[in-house]
Amino acid sequence: MKRKDNAFFRWFFGETDTMLGRVEMRPQQEYTETASDIREVMQDSLTQDQTGDEEDFVLIRVFHRLYRVAAVFFCVALIAVLLINVSWLPKNGGADNPVNNEVSARYIESGLQETGAVNIVTGMILDYRAFDTFGESNVLFIATVTVLILLRLDKEKKAPAKKGMPVYQRPKDELTIAQAQSRDRIYEPKNNVILQVVAGFLVPILFIFGIYVILNGHLSPGGGFSGGAIIGAGLILYLNAFGFEKTERFFTEKTYKWVSFFSLTFYCLAKSYSFFTGANHLESGIPLGTPGAILSSGLILPLNICVGLVVACTMYAFYALFRKGGF
Amino acid sequence: MDIFTYILMGFLVVCAISVTFSKKLLNSILIFMSYSLVMSVIWMLLESPDLAITEAAVGAGVTSVLFFVTLKKINAMMGEDGNDEKKG
Amino acid sequence: MLGPNLFANYGEAVAIILFGIGFSNLLLQKNLIKKIIGLNIMDTAVYLYLAEKGYIDGRVAPIVTNGVQEVGAYINPVPSGLVLTGIVVSVSVTALMLSLTIRLYRRYHTLDLDEISTRLKKEGL
User: For residue C22, what are the domain limits?
Assistant: First the structure.
């Protein structure tokens, strides 16, 4: 078959990749062999000599083939069994399916009076099942802490490797933050004008939209999670366009720490108070307001703001930790 | 409206299969991004706008960005090793 | 064997198929990032299944409009709440797994899980 020579066909037949060729632009580096490289190569060849019988390889290959066959068989069997299950389920979309029982009826019928939230889903996750959402915010916080443990880089260089240290304890791969930052900027177009102008337009709009989604969480679709993710995306765009020097003026590790701490503590205390008074039939003194007004539905609005702050900070922290190993 | 849903569901399955078979990691991440976006449209059709907003912001936005950053880090480290031919 | 409602429940069927594809990705791929994408596909498949279960024909999203508060007017809000929490948790799980991947790559300079495990064995861990 005769191929036509134009960009689309070249892309279609996989001769050039329009994306990959240009994403990682970096200057050519001279290859210099360091002492640790040589040591590692020698160690590799040594261990290769020590291991590796012919018999082992055959066994491993047989195991791999068996594993693949068994995995495909298992997946097909799983899909078949579950599809048979699905075919016996009641018809999708029927009003009298057993899923639509008295629980959802209760939420719909008296949700507005009890929580004051027009959006029943928000009323459910931030009032009836508020401790569930609290646990989830804590999951986000714990995930950030774990990523921080895994990816954090030190401010200064560590002590060099000692003699008897095992391979996995040598601090060979650890960079300092400054090194990582300078290396990070090599692979990236610095001060890209197009990106900066577009970000200048988009970032305020993203922030305003995120704040709108958070504040209207009890009136319209949305809420803390989605609004927080939108604000986090805006922060990430800002960081990409203007670099770490600009964002570090208002968002550092300290900001993250205090924002998360205050949000989670306020959430915990407010909801504990509300649940305590509710369980003991006391007057909680939290006004529900008129449904539909922006200052209504009791604790849902502040809790939404707390969740939104935690989510936004978490998203930005993930990105900054991945990029630089600290923020 | 039914036909639209059929097309979107078919697109989901095609996307999920082509993630498995695409050779380059960047391509599979982009396919996964479009998968999330279509998923958010499906949630709009299933009358769950809360989920649609959250999925569009979180699934298609932040998750893909995290994947991209990981790929960039790995490619940068790969460049330092000097074995560029082992991409993907 | 097959019941009567396989084609009426096409949404659930698609969710099951996506779950299977994601699971086979998780089992068969050697590349760690593709494994993570497979796990994400499994996540969304489960969410799709839940959302399909909560859907009711001809009803609207559970946002009270014009003061109508009958059960017959809105879809089931419970699956929406469940899935909403699930989506955000899946992001943090993804971030955690990706950071583990970066650490593994920094140590072993490969994304292939088989190679990593053989090297682990060689080092006696």
Answer: 10-122
